[in-house]
Structures are given as structure tokens and as C-alpha cells.
Amino acid sequence: MEHEILIVDDEPDIRFLLAGILEDDGYLTREAANSDEAIRLFRESRPSLVILDIWLQNSQLDGMALLKLFKEQRPDVPVIMISGHGTIETAVSSLHHGAYDFLEKPFQTDRLLVIVRRALEAARLRKENAELRLRAGEQGTLMGDSALINALRGQISRVAPTNSRVLISGPAGAGKEVVARMIHAQSKRAEGPFVVLNCAALAPDHFEEELFGVEGSEGKPGRPGLLERAHKGTLLLDEVADMPLEIQGKIVRALQINTFERLGGTHSMKVDVRVLAATSRDLQAEITTRHFREDLYYRLAVVPLQVPSLAERPEDIPMLAQYFLESCARSSGLPVRTLSVDALACLQTYDWPGNIRELRNLMERMLIMLPAGEGEQSNIIRAEMLPDIVREGAPSMTCLTAEADVMSLPLREARDHFETQYLQVQLMRFGGNISRTANFVCMERSALHRKLKQLGVTQEDRSAAQSARSGQEAK
Hints:
This protein has helices at 12-24, 35-45, 63-73, 88-96, 109-134, 147-159, 176-185, 207-212, 226-229, 245-257, 283-288, 294-300, 317-332, 341-349, 355-369, 388-391, 411-429, 434-440, 445-455, 459-462, 464-474; strands at residues 4-8, 28-32, 49-53, 79-83, 101-104, 166-169, 194-198, 213-214, 223-224, 234-238, 259-261, 268-270, 274-279, 303-306, 338-339, 380-381. By secondary structure, the chain is of the alpha/beta class. The longest helix is centred in the N-terminal third of the chain and has 26 residues, at 109-134.
């Protein structure tokens, strides 16, 4: 990512010298001769670093006053102070007010470049650490090997390197923010900030302030909004359908010209932000009912991506469930548990209205609430330990109780009873797919057909998973 540096000095020769040194080292530069130009460029160009002269001739504000102003408006931007008449007192004072370092004129080129690199790196690390704290515990990538997830990964890899806006659709809890983070991480903006605005959690009268920020007045410092904080990075508008119509109109304009004004301000702010949007609602239906602007939809949905529900990819559930068990065990200091085959069959037949979020919460609850035991077998989570709502749609073998005692049956009947329920479980696991079931139970496809016919497992039984899932999806 290219860094832009604002040079503020009243001497043209010094500005020319600094610009030449920095541009030769690969930086972009802007120059200001007085405080008015400096304030305007600081707001418009959003520099990564400022080199600021303490003594500014013919200027309303001197360098120290500008330093205070810059640190109030954007405390994350490092400022290097320079002066040809510096003293220890002025150097200490500038550092006390937030300057990164102080250089006396004439300065050595190598020392200047070293300080600039260190200042930019320190700022990058601060942003990175702040973001890591915010997303601690967040899942950072899509997990699973299903065809739907592999296709989505391919779409992400194609769209991420571009600067196109992306509309990410999918049910609540399916992983839309994970997709947005993957797009950011694989983009050219990966070193920039990733900022999230949760439109569903924000009061309508706070949207403008949160997005665009507030201009300072009467000695009170201004506050940057999320658009400013996302400069050179990515802004995710999560649950964008909940954004008020008035703000939708303002964001359309901001997206069109890449400039905006803070609340109460008169100066235009220019930003370089990639905007992603996520929604669990049908935006076309929202447009029809006039709850969402059509022009905003077409600006956001340059590339639409659809995140599948967990019910659409049951083959990914075993991997996800075990991952959540292990990650929760690490964070809480509890022993790792595993899921039995019958428990996995129950999980794969449940419809998961809360999607991945619901699965993660259930695994955490099971890990914490189940009593600890001794030995390997005591750390296995079995079907009967799962909540009733998860087990109710599973085949009978996953729900055996003391009343279903096969020991009371003759050997042949007990074996047939076991084989029937065993094969029903496996068919349920693989959605009624005979080929995949035969492969798993190590039987030829034709032999499995004969066995099912012998046991009286009908076509209706074999398609139970498919019909059950179709019924869930139709609700």
C-alpha cells in the first residue's frame, strides 16, 4: 500500500528537498506552505504521516498548534516535527503533545528515512493490534470441503484482488462477515484497516454521526467517522437493509464521489475506501416495498456473493463441530471432547436455523455443561447427550434408550434390527445418497441395494433425509 506524506514548511526549498527524498524512496507527497493549506490537505488527502515545521512564517497557526489539531482529529497519524531553531524545550514539548519524533535542520537523509519508516511501521502495528483485539476469537476463514464452500472460496479469490464492491447475502449466522474478512485479507488493502458498521445494532439518529464523524467546534475536538477510519482499507456495512433511507441517500453520494462532510462541517473529506455490504434479507423485495434505494443496491451489488446455510452443506458439520469443540477447549482450559458417530448423525439431520453461530454455541455449551469424567470414553459426546430439539429428526438408532433392548431379541432379529437402524443412520448422514453410503460402509452399491431390500428399507425410507430437508426448506 502506497503511503502519502504531508510536508508542511514555509520554506519552498525545504519542501522541495523533502519531497524529492521521500518520492525517491517510493512515497507519495503533498506540500503545504501555511496552516490553512495544511489543514485542508490533512482533511482531504488523509495522509499516512505528516512532517511539520515548528516555526511557520505568515501563518495563522504555528507548528505546535497544528500538531495539537492533527492529534485531536486523527491521533493515529504520526507527526515528525522539524526545525532549524530547535531547543531541547521545544523538542520535549512537541513529543509531549504527541509528535513521533523531532529532527533539527539540516537533517541527514538516511536518518530522516529511518524515522519515517519507523513511524509508519509503529502506526501500522497499532492499527493491527487494535483490529486483532476487536476480532479476537473470530473465525478467520471458511471451513469445510463441500462443493458449495469450495465454489464460494473460488469466487472470493477472484473478486478479492479487484477493488469492486461486493454484496454478500446469506442467512443470519452463516458466516457473511467471515467472507468479508477473507476478501479484505486477500485484497491489495490487506495492510489497511477493516472496519465494520453493524446497521442493525445502531439507532437511526446515530447513523450519520457514526459514518461521517463530527466536526470539532468551540474548542472541542472533532471525531472521525467510520469512513475516515477505513481510509486505505475496507468498510463492511453489515445488515445494510437496516440502514435508514435518509442515510442511504447520503452514502450513495459518498460512494459516487468518494468525498463527504463531517456532521456540522463545511470541508469536504476525501477517502479511499472499498465498501462491502452484507444482508440476510432480500434486497429486491426491500426495493419493491420502498425500504431500500435501488440506486444504492446497484452500487453495492457490483459482485453478488451468496453464503449457503449450514443445512445446505451437512457434510461440513463434523469438521466444524470438532473445530468449535477444540477452540473452546483451548480458550477455557477444559479437556477436548469428541463426537460419536450417532451424535454426528443427529447434528447432520438438524436444520440449524441459527446456522454456524448456533452450532458453535451448542458445542461450547456441551463442552462446558457436560460433567467431566475419567478415561477416553468419558470424553465422547453421544447422541443421547444432545438437546431433544437436535435429536428429534434423527433416525431411531441415534436415540436408543433402555426400552429398546436388543438383548431380548433372537440373534437374527437383533442383527436385522441393528443393521436396519445402522443403515438408516448412514443414509441419513449422506442425504439418501446410495453411492456415498455404500462407499462409507465398505459395500458394493449393488450389494447395499440388496441388503436394503432384504431388510425392508423402502425407497421412502432411503429418501427420508432428502424429503425431510425439503420440508424444512419449504417452511
